[in-house]
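does this look right to u?? S-adenosylmethionine version
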Amino acid sequence: MYICPVCKMKLRLDKKVWRCQKGHSFDVHRKGYVNLLTTRKHNPKKSGDNGDMVRARTEFLNFGHYEPLVKKTVSVMKALLEGVEDPVIIDSGCGEGYYTVNYAKQMPDASFFGIDISKGACSHAMSRVNEQGLENVDIAVASAFELPFEDMSADLVVCTFAPVSDREYARVLKSGGKLVVISPSAEHLFELKELIYENPYRNKPNEYGLEHFDEGEEEIFEYKASLASREEILSLYKMTPYYYKTAAPDAAKLIETESLELTCGFSIRTFSKKERAL
Ligand SMILES: C[S@@+](CC[C@H](N)C(=O)[O-])C[C@H]1O[C@@H](n2cnc3c(N)ncnc32)[C@H](O)[C@@H]1O
Ligand SMILES: [Zn+2]
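got this back:
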């Protein structure tokens, strides 16, 4: 499944080292993930989410408010993969692994490959995999724009709140392969924005310009979550981009809030690889 990020030849695992025929080698980290990001092109220290962002995301996700989204996405993936035996699924931009691990628990016959450009996020994702004792998840540090997978090796790519790569997804998907892209709906977290901004705006839809895919139906999946403590509200705030953009006086209003009825809203878009793609 993995290919060498330097020469693109197949990688084979040899006593905890992934090697290609040309002699490039990549050690499996003691936790179990592998770093397949070429430092020539990317600076892993500057790439993707930093430690604080990963911690905030973990703290919030562990409260379980996004559990309905996991369930929903699993049902969408299962429907798309009907008739496919032992599917291979890539979670692109898997972050700290909350979704990957929960998908893998609910789809034990599927093999999951999580990739993220942030080493800290991958390390955390691997800890989640190990905690759950899951055998069907592999994690690699890599970019969505240079995936470390063989051509036509996956049945489905899922991408949640992370960068989308038209060309690479089309390359690694088998013929007829599926893509699921999840992004915030217009109403997502609106009540949080009302707390911090005078004129909160609704999210605009994302345009991905996917040339290699046919689009299926978009589903807007929305529900209310009850955040019952300051801790929950603050961890949510710290995981959003608003935390990095909001002036201190605006943020102060949020610190005084003890409970919040919150809209969690997601746009779930599904795509099929075009027959003549790549
Ligand atoms: C908003 S987070 C979402 C993480 C996870 N999917 C979730 O929903 O919890 C976006 C993730 O994309 C990762 N990312 C950013 N650029 C990337 C790239 N070029 N390739 C792979 N991952 C990338 C970040 O490191 C971060 O973990
Ligand atoms: Zn190589």
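The domain at 12-273 is CATH 3.40.50.150 (Rossmann fold). idk if thats expected tbh
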